[in-house]
C-alpha cells in the first residue's frame, strides 16, 4: 500500500474522483455500493481542459489520451494516489514521474482492440475489397500487441494471408494466450511493408532499440507497393507526415494505392491539407466502439479495487444492453458485411465536412476535431451487430455468429466473456 493511499484511508474523508467527461460507465462502476464503505464525489471535466487546480483535491484521476499527465498537471496533486487511463496507449502519461511520487498507475491494454480491428476491416472493404477473396493477397501488420493480434485474428479466420513485423515478439518475448493461438509468420520490416495492405499497430516510442517515432519515413516508405493500402490507426507521429504525403501523392495515388489515416501529427490541430491525399480520414476514432469504452472503465475499476483492497462486486455483466441492426444478408460478401456493420465512409465525410468548413485557424480545426470525437455516435462491435434478413421468418444472426458459422473463428478471452 502506498503512503498516499494510506494517508487517504486514515483521513476517513470523501473519495474524490476526477474523470474525463467522455469516459462512460464511471457512475456505474465507481459508486458508494461498489466501493463501499467509501463516500464518493465524482467530478467530470473536458479531458483537454483538466488543470493542476482541478487535480489539487483529487484522490483518483481517470483520463483518456487527450490529457497529458505530467509535472505541470500534478503540481498541486498532494492527495492523488491513483491515475488510470482508459486507453491502450500510454505516451500521454509520465510514468517515471508517477512512480517517483508514489502514485499508482494503470491503463486498459486491449480494451478497444476489437473496435480497431473492425475499423481496419471496414477500411479494407472500401479500399481493396478483393483482399478477402483473392488467393495471393497479403496483409502486413506492423506490431502484434493487443490491437495487431485482434486484426490478425479476424484476417486469419477469413483465410487471408498475414505477415507480421514485431521485433519484440519475434525475438521471443512472451506471447499472450490470444497471440499463442495465432499462427504468426514473422518477417522483416521491409517484407511486411511490401504487402497489399499494410496496417500499423504500434505504441509511439522515441527511445530503446526499436523506436517507432517516424518509423515510416522517406527511406522505409520506398518498400511499399505502389498499389498498397496504407493504414495508420496507432499514433500520428509513427509516420513522418511530410514524407508520407509526398510518397502517396507521387507513387501511390497514380497507381491505385490508398492512404487511410485515423491518427495525425499535432492532434487536434492537424494539417488539413493531408485530407487531400487520404482515401479515408477519421478523427482518432478507430477504437471508439461502445464496448471498447466500457471495457476501459471496467479495467480501471478492477485495478482501483485491487489497489484499495476492495472486493470486485461488478463485472462486464454490468454493461448496459446495446444492439445495432443492419439490413444485410448473412450470406453477403465479407466486404459488404463489414461496411454495413461499420460504414467508415460516413465518418470520413463527417470529418472532411467539419474541418473544411472551419475558418482554417488552428483553434477552429482543433475544436472541430474534438467535437467530432465528443459527439461520436454509438458504434457496436460485431457481437452486438444483428443482421436483419429480408425474410422476417428467417432467424437473425449477429455478425460475430456469422463469422463463426462461415469461417474458422479463432477464439479470444472476449468471446468467453461476451464483451
- Relative helix content: 25-40%
Main beta sheet, described? 6 strands, parallel
Q: How many runs of DSSP E, i.e. beta strands?
A: 14
Q: Give, in spatial order, the strands making up the sheet with the most strands.
A: 7-6-8-9-10-11
Task: Please state the overall shape, judged from the principal axes of the Cα atoms.
Answer: globular
How many alpha or pi helices?
Answer: 16
Note the gap between the termini: 31 Å
Q: What is the average of the pLDDT values?
A: 92
> Helices and strands: which structural class?
alpha/beta
Report strand %: 5-15%
Low-confidence stretches: 414-418
CA radius of gyration is 22 Å
Secondary-structure element sequence?
HEHEHEEHEHEHEHHHEEHEEHEHHHEEHH
Q: What order do the helices and strands come in, and which of them pair?
A:
Layout: H1 3-11, E1 15-20, H2 26-29, E2 40-45, H3 52-55, E3 60-63, E4 82-85, H4 95-101, E5 104-107, H5 113-127, E6 138-142, H6 146-157, E7 161-165, H7 167-170, H8 177-180, H9 189-193, E8 197-200, E9 229-232, H10 241-252, E10 258-261, E11 280-281, H11 290-308, E12 324-326, H12 334-341, H13 344-356, H14 362-374, E13 385-387, E14 397-398, H15 399-406, H16 413-417
Parallel strand pairs: 1-2, 1-3, 3-4, 4-5, 6-7, 6-8, 8-9, 9-10, 10-11, 12-13
Antiparallel strand pairs: 13-14
Q: Can you offer a commentary on this structure?
A:
This protein has 419 residues and is an alpha/beta fold. Helix content is 34%, strand content 13%. The chain is built from 16 helices and 14 strands. Strands 7-6-8-9-10-11 form a six-stranded parallel beta sheet. A five-stranded parallel beta sheet has the order 2-1-3-4-5, sandwiched between helices. A three-stranded mixed beta sheet has the order 12-13-14. Helix 13 runs antiparallel to helix 14 (362-374). The longest helix has 19 residues, at 290-308. The protein is globular and about 65 Å long.
Amino acid at each position: 500500500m502506498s503512503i498516499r493511499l494510506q494517508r487517504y484511508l486514515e483521513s476517513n474523508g470523501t473519495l474524490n474522483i476526477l474523470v474525463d467527461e467522455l469516459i462512460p460507465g464511471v457512475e456505474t462502476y465507481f459508486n458508494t455500493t461498489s466501493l463501499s464503505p467509501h463516500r464518493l464525489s465524482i467530478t467530470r471535466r473536458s479531458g483537454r481542459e483538466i488543470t493542476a487546480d482541478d487535480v489539487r483535491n483529487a484522490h483518483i484521476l481517470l483520463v483518456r489520451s487527450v490529457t497529458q499527465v505530467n509535472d505541470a498537471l500534478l503540481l498541486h496533486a498532494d492527495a492523488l494516489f491513483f491515475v488510470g487511463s482508459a486507453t491502450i496507449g500510454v505516451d500521454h502519461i509520465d510514468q517515471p514521474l508517477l512512480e517517483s511520487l508514489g502514485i499508482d498507475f494503470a491503463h486498459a491494454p486491449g480494451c478497444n482492440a476489437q473496435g480497431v480491428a473492425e475499423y481496419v476491416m471496414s477500411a479494407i472493404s472500401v479500399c481493396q475489397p478483393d483482399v478477402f477473396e483473392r488467393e495471393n493477397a497479403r496483409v502486413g501488420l506492423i506490431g502484434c500487441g493487443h490491437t495487431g493480434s485482434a486484426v490478425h485474428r479476424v484476417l486469419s479466420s477469413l483465410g487471408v494471408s498475414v505477415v507480421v513485423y514485431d521485433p519484440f515478439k519475434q525475438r521471443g518475448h512472451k506471447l499472450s494466450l490470444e497471440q499463442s493461438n495465432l499462427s504468426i509468420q514473422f518477417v522483416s520490416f521491409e517484407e511486411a511493408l511490401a504487402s497489399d495492405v499494410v496496417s500499423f499497430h504500434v505504441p509511439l516510442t522515441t527511445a530503446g532499440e526499436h523506436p517507432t517515432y517516424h518509423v515510416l519515413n522517406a527511406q522505409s516508405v520506398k518498400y511499399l507497393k505502389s498499389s498498397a493500402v496504407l493504414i495508420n490507426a496507432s499514433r500520428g507521429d509513427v509516420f513522418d507526415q511530410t514524407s508520407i504525403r509526398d510518397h502517396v501523392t507521387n507513387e501511390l495515388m497514380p497507381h491505385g494505392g490508398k492512404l487511410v489515416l485515423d491518427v495525425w501529427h499535432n492532434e487536434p490541430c492537424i494539417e488539413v491539407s493531408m485530407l487531400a491525399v487520404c482515401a479515408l480520414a477519421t478523427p482518432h476514432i478507430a477504437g471508439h466502439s461502445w464496448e471498447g469504452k466500457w471495457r476501459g472503465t471496467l479495467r480501471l475499476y478492477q485495478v482501483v479495487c485491487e489497489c484499495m483492497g476492495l472486493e470486485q462486486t461488478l463485472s462486464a455483466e454490468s454493461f448496459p444492453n446495446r444492439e445495432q441492426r443492419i439490413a444485410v444478408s448473412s450470406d453477403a460478401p465479407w466486404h459488404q458485411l463489414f461496411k454495413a456493420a461499420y460504414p467508415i465512409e460516413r465518418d470520413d465525410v463527417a470529418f472532411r465536412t467539419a474541418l473544411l468548413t472551419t475558418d482554417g485557424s488552428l483553434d477552429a480545426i482543433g475544436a472541430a476535431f474534438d467535437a467530432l470525437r465528443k459527439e461520436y455516435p454509438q458504434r457496436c462491435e460485431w457481437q452486438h451487430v444483428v443482421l436483419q434478413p429480408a425474410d422476417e421468418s428467417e432467424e437473425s444472426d449477429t455478425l460475430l455468429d456469422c463469422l463463426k458459422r462461415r469461417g474458422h473463428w479463432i477464439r479470444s478471452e472476449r468471446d468467453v466473456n461476451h464483451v
